[in-house]
Amino acid sequence: MSKVEQKTQSMDPTHPWKLTTERIVIAAMLAGLTVCITLIPGIGFIPVPNVSGNATTGHIPTIIGGIVGGPIVGLLTGFIFGLMSLLHASSPLFKDPTVAILPRIFIGLTAWATFAALKRFSFDVAAISAGVIGSLTNSVLVISMGMIRGYIPANGVILASFLPQVIAEAIISAIFAEAVARSYAIVQQRLVHAPETKAREELPY
Q1: Which of 16, 27, 161, 193 could bridge across to 76 with cysteines, CB 3.0–4.6 Å?
Q2: Domains of the chain, with CATH numbers?
Q3: 7 CB contacts (<8 Å, ≥6 apart)?
Q4: Which InterPro entries does the entry link to (predicted)?
C-alpha cells in the first residue's frame, strides 16, 4: 500500500453526514461544474439514437462529489444534475421529475458507499468501482423509473439499445473518478503534511 493510500483511508476524517465548510465548497464547485457541463452542447448531454435521446457525462461530478466529499455532497450535486436534466429535457422521459431528478439523488450515495467500503483494500480499485457503480446507478434507476412511469416499453430490443450507452458511461466515469480522486488525495495530503522549512516565527501565517 502506497503512502497516499495509507494516509487516505478516509478522504475526510469528519463524520460523513456532517456538513462542513470544506464540503460546502466542494459541493458548490461540483454543482457549478455540473451546470457548465450540461450547458455545453454535445458534452453534458450527447445525442444518441434510443428512447433516452441523450447519453450523459453530467453525472461524473456527482460521482466525484460522493467520493471526495461524502454522501451530503453527492446528494446536493446529484440534485443539481437532475434539475439540469429536467430543464434541458427535450423528450417526455426527462420532463418528468421522478425520472430526471429522483434517480440522480442516489448516484452520489452509491458512489460514496462503494468507495467507503473498498478504500481500505485498494484506493484505486475503490475509486474505479465507485465510478462504475455511480454510473450504473444513474442508468439503471433512470431506465427503471422510465419503465414504471410508462415512457420506456419493457421490450428486450429497446432495453438492449441502452447497453452501449450504459457501458460507455460506466467506463468514462471510472476513468475520471479514479484520476480525480487520486489527484485530490495527493493534493490534500501535501497540504496537510507539507514540511515546514522555516522556524514557526518566520512563517507568514
Answers
A1: 27
A2: 18-190 (1.10.1760.20)
A3: 185, 189, 193
A4: ECF_trnsprt_substrate-spec
